[in-house]
Each structure stands twice: as C-alpha cells, then as structure tokens.
C-alpha cells in the first residue's frame, strides 16, 4: 500500500530519549477579564510548556481545531522538534493559512519553545540569540471623549512610565469610536475591551469624512500641550480607502507620528502603494495577518515601516521570527501586537522575541486586569517605559488551574460598524 505521508507519523519520529516525548496536550479555556484559549503541553519527564491560542471573538474555533485535530497528532512526538512539528502541522493539513489554523500552530510552537527553554534551564530569549537590548520600549493607549479627558489619559500614562503613547479620541457626530474607553477606569488602567459578552455583536456607527476632519485637530492640540518629543501613534483600524488614508497621512505629517496603523484593510497589499506615494508618515500594519505571504508585497516594495503581527496569530515564534528577518533586510522593524486579547502567554512570547531580534521597533502594551493576572502568573517587568521578560526559565509564565476554573467561557463578540445609511463598514 502506498504511503502518502511516509515521514509524519509519531512512530517515525520517536524521540531518542523518551523523556522529551509529548505525554499530554490540554486545551484550556478560561474567561477571567475576557476569554483566553491556552494550550498546555507536558512531556514524559513532566516538563510543561504553554502556548496562547486566543482568537478574539472566535475563541472556540481554535479550541476545537486544537482538541479535535492537533492534540491527537502531538502525542508521542519529540517536544524538541519544533521546526519539524511546525512544518508537519502546516503542510499535512493541506488547507493552509487563515487565523484559526495559524493560531493553533502558534500555540503548539510557543509551548514547544517554552519546553525547550525550560529543559535548557534558560529564559527563552537566550535560545533566540540572547538579548540585543536592555529593555523593550512599550507604548500605551491613551484615549478620551474630548481633549481634557484625552490630556488626562496621556498624563496618567506618562506618570506610569510610558514614553510612547497611542492617541485615540471620540469624533463629533459618531456615537462609539474604536479605541476610546467608555469611562476613565477606577483602577487607573486603560480599560477598553471591545469584545462584549453578549449573544450578538454590538453595532457601532462610522463616518470617515467626520473622522478625517477631526483627527488632525486632535494631534495639533496634543503636540501643543505635550511638546515635540513624545512619540505619538494612531490606529486607523482598517476604515479608510487608499486615497483617504493618503490624505490622513499627509494631514498628520506636521505632528510627526511614530506611526499610522492599519490605515486601510490591508489584505489588498497594493493599496499601500497609493498611500506611500503621498505621505512620509510611517506606516504600521499586520495585526490581522497570518503568514509571511501577507507581507510579501508590503516588505519587498518597502510600503510599510513596522510589522504589527502577534506571535499568537502568525504561527508562533518560529514563523514571526522569519517574517521579521525578512523585514529586516528592508529596514522594516517590529511593532508586535499586544492588546488584552493576547494572553499573558502570548505577550511573554512577544517579549522574548522583542529582546532578541535586531530590528526591534516598539511593543504594544495593554495591561491585563487583576483576574487575568491571577490565572497567568508572570515574570515580566515594566519599569520607566521599558518591558523585560525577566530571568525565569522558559516563557516565565505559569497557569493556575484553580483560578482559571472560577471563570468559565462566556460568548463574546467584537463590534461591527454601519454607516449612516445602514451599510456595513469595516470595524
Ligand atoms: Mg491595531
């Protein structure tokens, strides 16, 4: 009988030392401040590795992909064979790419890197080449419904140590705008969670012309108040056409942005050519991308300045490292996605990668809530605007089953947009 996949059965890859064979792989779903999906892999010797598989608003699809189709393939494989396992999961499925598949592969990849580093007795960044810097510059999210509230939020971030700040505000005539916290958080933390626990997604409204008129006036006011030095960022959240994005980039040039993020829905990579022709405002894109192929035109034609992918949604440390190495040849830097829907496990993976790569740019950092921090105990530090993954072995994250059990999964959806005439628009 012909063998279609002669090199991919666990028996063919039986580890020389049985101790590093994968004994179990568990898919853990919990919802402390929000939903998280975590993969926990344990070797025969009892070494445990964690991977983040959280896909905001579609969490159970990845949990099912892992439980039903990946976990059975992992049992008995050598945990040391990270690259081989990655290639096996990517190619043997036949159906490649996509957020569900790549989040599942990412969880396996990160868990295996965690295990390898724990066996080595080293923090993970040491296996990625060691530290290339002493700290990881982070940016925080400031927002406000009006300028006084925005200024308070920026000052609060500066008091916390943030040196670089993303600025999002309400827009006159629009009821609910992406990135604007509903009210100042009692904890002092920027407390914006767009995925609401409800059976249906919330409907928001949008008006691009009103947005384009308003945002440059906000940045003018922020520069006047806070001066020329503080790096300022802004997220367009995929809502503009290429020519609208080009106009916004031009209009923001006097305010010297660190970057303008997701100015168009960038699955059409060629759209960025038009934006780039018109503006020198640096561009960042890619939080919804899954593979290097989503960046092919953007990187080769130098249409962007920062890669925004998350470790969690791009096939893990192994795959994102390759994307960033590709980008480095074109002087394009990292800006790894780090909102609260990236679990502390996914954040830790990002921090180890940030510390090791040469072409690091900046790291997004949204602080998790107290319940989340009780489930995921972490070793990272944040001091004077800089993150560091810490000196514990592996990722430096442990999972508390008892704490997690207190927070069962709850259905939650990201919102969606309608224009004034009822047309569905990009959110
Ligand atoms: Mg974004």
If you had to describe this structure to a student in words, what would you say it looks like?
The chain has 2 domains: 10-122, Enolase-like, N-terminal domain (Enolase-like, domain 1, 2-Layer Sandwich), CATH 3.30.390.10; 127-393, Alpha-Beta Barrel (TIM Barrel), CATH 3.20.20.120. Mean pLDDT is 94; it is low at 1-9. The termini are far apart. It is built from 12 helices and 20 strands. The chain has helices spanning 59-74, 82-92, 99-120, 147-160, 208-226, 242-252, 271-278, 296-300, 316-328, 344-356, 370-375, 401-405; strands at 22-30, 36-43, 48-52, 136-144, 164-169, 196-197, 203-205, 232-235, 259-261, 283-285, 306-307, 333-336, 362-364, 376-378, 381-383, 386-388, 397-399, 412-413, 416-418, 424-425. The protein is an alpha/beta fold. Strands 4-5-8-9-10-11-12-13 form an 8-stranded parallel β-barrel, surrounded by 4 helices. A 3-stranded antiparallel sheet has the order 1-2-3. It is globular and about 65 Å long. Bound molecules: magnesium ion (MG). Magnesium ion (MG) binds next to loops.
**Secondary structure category:** alpha/beta
Number of strands: 20
Largest beta-sheet details? 8 strands, parallel, barrel
Pick out the low-confidence regions: 1-9
CATH class of the largest domain: Alpha Beta
Concise synopsis of the structure shown:
The chain is of the alpha/beta class and 427 residues long. It contains twelve helices and 20 strands. It has an eight-stranded parallel barrel with strand order 4-5-8-9-10-11-12-13, surrounded by four helices.
């Amino acid at each position: 009988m012909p063998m279609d996949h002669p090199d991919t059965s666990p028996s063919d890859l039986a580890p020389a030392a049985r101790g590093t064979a994968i004994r179990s792989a568990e898919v853990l779903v919990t919802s402390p401040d929000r939903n998280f999906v975590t993969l926990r892999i344990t070797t025969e010797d009892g070494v445990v590795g964690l991977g983040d598989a959280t896909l905001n608003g579609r969490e159970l699809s990845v949990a099912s992909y892992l439980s039903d189709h990946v976990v059975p393939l992992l049992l008995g494989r050598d945990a040391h064979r990270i690259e081989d396992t990655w290639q096996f999961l990517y190619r043997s499925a036949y159906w490649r790419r996509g957020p569900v598949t790549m989040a599942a592969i990412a969880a396996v990849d990160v868990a295996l890197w965690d295990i390898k580093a724990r066996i080595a007795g080293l923090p993970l960044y040491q296996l990625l080449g060691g530290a290339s810097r002493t700290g990881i510059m982070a940016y925080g999210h400031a927002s406000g419904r009006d300028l006084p509230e925005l200024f308070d939020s920026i000052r609060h971030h500066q008091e916390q140590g943030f040196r670089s700040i993303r600025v999002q505000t309400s827009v006159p005539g629009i009821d609910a705008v992406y990135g604007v916290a509903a009210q100042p958080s009692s904890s002092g933390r920027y407390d914006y969670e767009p995925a609401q626990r409800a059976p249906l997604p919330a409907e928001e409204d949008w008006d691009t012309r009103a947005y384009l008129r308003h945002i440059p006036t906000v940045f003018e006011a922020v520069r006047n108040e806070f001066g020329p030095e503080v790096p300022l960022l802004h997220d367009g959240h995929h809502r503009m056409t290429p020519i609208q994005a080009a106009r916004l980039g031009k209009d923001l040039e006097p305010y010297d942005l660190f970057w303008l993020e997701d100015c168009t829905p960038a699955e059409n990579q060629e759209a960025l050519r038009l934006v780039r022709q018109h503006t020198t405002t640096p561009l960042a894109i890619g939080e919804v991308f899954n593979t290097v192929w989503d960046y092919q035109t953007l990187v080769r034609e130098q249409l962007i300045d920062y890669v925004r992918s998350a470790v969690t949604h791009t096939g893990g440390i192994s795959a994102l490292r390759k994307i960033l190495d590709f980008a480095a040849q074109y002087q394009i830097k990292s800006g790894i996605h780090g909102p609260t829907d990236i679990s502390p496990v996914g954040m830790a993976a990002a921090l180890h990668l940030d510390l090791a790569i040469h072409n690091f740019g900046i790291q997004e950092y949204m602080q998790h809530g107290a319940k989340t921090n009780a489930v995921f105990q972490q070793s990272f530090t944040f001091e004077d605007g800089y993150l560091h993954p810490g000196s514990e072995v592996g990722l430096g994250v442990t999972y508390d089953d008892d704490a997690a059990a207190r927070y069962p999964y709850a259905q939650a959806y990201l919102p969606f947009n309608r224009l004034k005439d009822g047309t569905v628009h990009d959110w």
